[in-house]
Specification:
Length: 131
């Protein structure tokens, strides 16, 4: 099975920064790895899971939620199937569990923020923004 592991979460003050990491592993030869996309999502208690950002391996296409654009930056390392999410100027309302997910079917693109298109999910990493 494909596994995704998130790390880098923790507790920071408002206005602080964190860098989250997502590493995917467990690929087998039947899988075509010419294309993959990784999305970051977050879910706060009592709230729906929402898309934060996404990156594609084919054209380095990226996308961001309006609420994080200009503060968050996504980047990838193809050889290690690793994606980083740099998060600056964090706000208390961004306290949530952050998840990464991978799509290898080519389903993302304009639908990147639809959680149902992704094939495998990590267990999440907690981010707490408070004074």
């Amino acid at each position: 099975q494909v596994q995704l592991v998130e790390s880098g979460g923790g507790s920071v003050q408002p206005g602080g920064s964190l860098r989250l990491s997502c590493v995917a592993s467990g690929f087998t030869p039947p899988m075509n790895l010419d294309y993959y996309a990784i999305g970051w999502f977050r879910q706060a208690p009592g709230k729906d899971r929402e898309g934060v950002s996404y990156i594609s391996s084919l054209v380095s296409e990226t996308a961001y939620a309006d609420s994080v654009r200009g503060r968050f930056t996504i980047a990838r390392n193809d050889n290690k199937y690793k994606v980083l999410l740099q998060k600056n100027s964090l706000k208390p309302e961004e306290t949530a569990v952050y998840y990464c997910a991978i799509d290898y079917k080519g389903s993302a693109g304009s639908n990147w923020n639809r959680s149902q298109i992704y094939d495998y999910w990590g267990q999440g990493t907690q981010v707490t923004v408070s004074s």
